[in-house]
Amino acid sequence: SQQGEEDPQALSIQEGENATMNCSYKTSINNLQWYRQNSGRGLVHLILIRSNEREKHSGRLRVTLDTSKKSSSLLITASRAADTASYFCATDDPYNTDKLIFGTGTRLQVFP
Amino acid sequence: DTGVSQDPRHKITKRGQNVTFRCDPISEHNRLYWYRQTLGQGPEFLTYFQNEAQLEKSRLLSDRFSAERPKGSFSTLEIQRTEQGDSAMYLCASSLSGSQDGYTFGSGTRLTVV
After folding, report:
1. pLDDT tens column, B86-95
2. Short-list B6, B15, B105, CA closest to B64
3. How many CA atoms lie within 13 A of A70 on its CB side?
């Protein structure tokens, strides 16, 4: 089962523009993570935000978390063609915090 | 350490055949996870190990699937009597302390059952 739902399912932008992806989840969490997946490859961990944090930055990435709305957003600023990938949010399983449950993903296309 | 390695990268097999995949995690990571991903979907949890102990198996993992992690190092995932519905990307990940850290994923094994 998928805990997270990303929105939009697909996003196309020009290089230099900002890309915003949203994730909604259903249960209480300890942390939420974002991953990137290039076509046909494994996932790469981007950033982790804990339930007591509201915002976190890493380079061109900005993640926000609103636990009252059970939602998170990932902002990629000044996007590049190399950012073209699928982006997934993941939350810890409320029944087993050892494991992550992934969302359905947002497919980002950045045109040069 | 070169990260998480999976072998093979691609596997094409005939329906009814058995296949086995291997995953070598990051050496100091005691947790190892298997996920399955179909086209356009997010990864779905299959099973995981803490050291050599298999702690949880998803209901997705039918009796035809078995996973092992002897001596708490590498892991194998075997699918017996493959079906076309088994066609997917099988992803392995490892972690030092579960979901409190990020997972490190391998590049995956893409299985095609014909």
Report:
1. 999 999 999 9
2. B15
3. 10
Give the minimum alpha-carbon distance from B46 to chain A in angstroms, rounded to a whole number.
10
Report CA-CA distances (Å) from A36 to A33, A41, A45, B111, B113: 10, 10, 7, 21, 27
Whether B25 and chain A come into contact, CB under 8 Å, resolves to no
The alpha-carbon gap from A102 to the nearest alpha carbon of chain B, in Å, equals 6
Tokens linked to B35: 């996920």
B56–A96 CB contact, under 8 Å: yes
Does B19 contact chain A (CB < 8 Å)? no
| Nearest C-alpha neighbor of A12 from the set A108, A88, A82 | A108
Question: Looking up tokens 């179909």, which residue turns up?
Answer: B38
**Chain A positions in Cβ-Cβ contact with residue B50 (cut-off 8 Å):** 98
Cα–Cα dist B35/B58, whole Å: 10
Kindly report, residue by residue over A21-62, the tens digit of the pLDDT. 999 999 999 999 999 999 988 999 999 999 999 999 999 999
Flag whether pLDDT at B1 surpasses 60: no
